Amino acid sequence: MPENHTHTHEDVPTRALRLGVAGPVGVGKSTILATLCRELADELSMAVVTNDIYTDEDARYLRSAGVLPVERIHAVETGACPHTAIRDDVTPNLLAVEDLEERFAPLDLVVVESGGDNLTATFSPALVDAQIFVLDVAGGGDVARKGGPGIERADLLVVNKTDLAPYVGVDAEQMVADASAARDGRPVLALSQRDPESVTRLGDWAREVLRSFRAGQHVAQDPGPMAPHTHADGTTHAHA
């Protein structure tokens, strides 16, 4: 299990950088969290908050992976659609983040993983300072072209599992190009756990956001509210 770096520098901010990771079910969000922990935990003091509707399965996966001490991984059971806990009422997540920051001060980075949701789910800037939106090639090469607030305006868009592209009939390079076109110059990262260079780029992106945050240069952006949508029970609503 990685040791956690303890800061003594006077310029450490009063709270950690809060980084959100969102995206549909099965795109690899928990794996990306584990990857970030493996890349950064030797140099940064970190903690994680996971969100699931009725279980703590994502938290248990991360604890079993040994990427952080188990007490630094907190599970939130939302009891409702995951986007409600990261955008509409962020209180349970905010309390979890603040508790971790108090218990393990000083923390450098707290990563909040949303439960799997649809393409329009985004974090409230009241909860996180920056956010990653995740797609994967198995979801279809046309997904990036469909757009949505997370795809278009999250701080980073990850096109994940690119090593699987030949097996699912997807042109990964074209998918990344489509994503880049949709994002108007915002960064896109093609990621594979089998490609160490792409994993390093993910860690470097997080380091740069943290550097900007500590320097007071990072401004949290709001990708925008969810569009009106219909749930399985037939109710239709929007989130302002």
Mean pLDDT reading? 90
Oligomer: single chain
Q: How are the strands of the biggest sheet laid out side by side?
A: 3-2-4-1-5-6-7
Instruction: Quickly give the structural class.
Output: alpha/beta
Summed up:
The protein has 240 residues and is α/β, with parallel strands linked by helices. Helices cover 35% and strands 18% of the residues.
How would you describe the overall organization of this protein?
- By secondary structure, this protein is α/β, with parallel strands linked by helices.
- The chain contains 9 helices and 9 strands.
SSE topology sketch:
Layout: E1 17-22, H1 29-40, E2 46-52, H2 57-65, E3 73-77, H3 82-88, H4 91-103, E4 109-113, E5 130-136, H5 143-146, H6 149-153, E6 156-160, H7 165-168, H8 172-182, E7 188-190, H9 196-214, E8 229-230, E9 236-237
Helix pairs in contact: 1-2, 1-9
List keywords for this structure.
240 residues; alpha/beta; 7-stranded parallel beta sheet; two-stranded antiparallel ribbon; 9 strands; 35% helix; 18% strand; globular; disordered N terminus
